[in-house]
Amino acid sequence: MESQASMAPTPRALPYYVAFSQLLGLTVVAMTGAWLGLYRGGIAWESALQFNVHPLCMVIGLVFLQGDALLVYRVFRNEAKRTTKILHGLLHVFAFIIALVGLVAVFDYHRKKGYPDLYSLHSWCGILVFVLYLVQWLVGFSFFLFPGAS
Fold first, then answer.
1. What is the rounded (10 degree) CA torsion for 82, 85, 87, 93?
2. All structural domains of the chain
3. Distances from the Cα of 145 to the Cα of 6, 74, 82, 94, angstroms
4. pLDDT tens digits, residue range 95-119?
């Protein structure tokens, strides 16, 4: 039996909202890249610029790709559920991997420079966000593997 939410008609303005959200997300990614390139010297892994990988990866992974993963079920309402589940899962996997690269970059940078880890409120809040995202990701993945559990 289908739920009421899946039978509800698509709002007429939804494509405009989605287009606006994509434009806004790409603008944030581009502005972060421009900020890192113009004012922070760019990004590189094996140099002092390794720290700059962190903000770019976090914006791409935890803001843009995660937001796109959340929109999949609204945008592709008429597609097969299996297809949308796979796309939703892939976007979350990419978001997780990119965010993990950003996390590794900042910890590796601190280790190379001899800076202490987790010394600010920003770092503790960031770890909390990442841990909660990981828990949510693992629970969601388990329900994806065992759909009868839901």
1. -140
2. 10-149 (1.20.120.1770)
3. 21, 22, 12, 18
4. 999 999 999 999 999 999 999 999 9
- Cβ burial, residue 102 (10 Å; 0-12/13-18/19+): buried
Contact by Cβ (8 Å): 94, 65: yes
- Alpha-carbon span 52 to 32, nearest angstrom: 10
Q: 134 near 96, Cβ under 8 Å?
A: yes
pLDDT, one tens digit per residue, over 5-45 is 556 677 888 889 999 999 999 999 999 999 999 999 999 99
Which pTM was predicted? 0.85
φ/ψ (deg, to 5) at 130:
-65, -40
Three-state secondary-structure class, residue 49: helix
The residue written with tokens 């993990």 in the block is: 100
Helix intervals (H) in the chain: 4-7, 14-39, 53-58, 66-75, 81-113, 121-145
